[in-house]
Amino acid sequence: MEDFLLIEIPAFRPLYKKWKKYGYANPIEKNNLRNVLEESTGGYCMYCYSRIRVDEKLYANLEHAIEKSNSDKLIECIPNIGISCSVCNQTFKRMGESRRKIHKIDIDQYEESSRCSGNYRKQCTVSCKALRELQRSYSNLPGAEILLQPMGIKGRDSNETLALQYDVMNMKFEPARNTYAYSDNEIQFIEKHIKRFRLNDPKFRSRQLFDFVRNVIDHGGRMPIYEYNNLIVKLFCERLSGKSQNEILKICKSIFIAAFPKMQC
User: Fold this and answer.
1) How confident is the model at residue 2 (pLDDT cuts 50, 70, 90)?
2) Phi, psi of 63 (to 5 degrees)
């Protein structure tokens, strides 16, 4: 059951349409971008995985992975823009932002190598080489241990995608060690990301999965049908799909017994 209860967080891959225009300043292009990013996450924040749409109202910001203050070219750089809840974007992501100012020599290199200009903006929906190199420079800055979205990050040592997994039995996020072979430095990088966004902090971590498990037990193993407020619950339900009601009840009871002391902290 151990591997069954380790859920890897999937990468967010926006499916941009060639016939649509995406952007940040133009209202129509911005709405197109917001829609495709929301669709790519299933309606969840790219950082804390909480639902960003409630009662048809969107509680989310378009978020520049590498802060747009570093270069004007980043403002309209589509692969550099993700979607997140306002808390992750305006509070957790901004912590230490002044220390993450990219060195001028790296910005100059990016602006020279990028094929976009102030007067001409390419409709790029895939990270160019210049952006990827800038992202590597950014990730080396103090306080920049962030799994940027939707670009994603690769480890410098292993060249593996840096990703999270969720340990259902312990109700916590951790580096996706079961899928990737990370170095110690890469594990520390991911753990700092987890700490930055308070994913395991008792005051901020989601209780949605724990409440869902308890609900299933109360209903004798029947899974409730409603819109889940956290992506982890949705992924866990997919894991349970195809199992019998008795199997689901047994699994949820095991989880509840193991997780109950941790969720009371």
Assistant:
1) low
2) -120, 125
How many angstroms separate the CA atoms of 71 and 132, rounded? 15
Nearest to 149 by CA among 31, 25, 10, 18: 10
Residue 138 pLDDT grade (very low, low, confident, very high; cuts 50, 70, 90): very high
- Tell me the residue type at 126: V
SS3 53: strand
Six-digit token string for 167: 């340990």
CB 150 within 8 A of CB 66: no
* The token pair that represents 193 in the structure block: 């990301």
Whole-structure pTM value: 0.92
194: left (phi over 0), alpha (psi -120 to 50) or beta: alpha
Contact yes or no for 194/187 (Cβ under 8 A):
no
What stretch of H or E contains 54?
A: strand 53-54
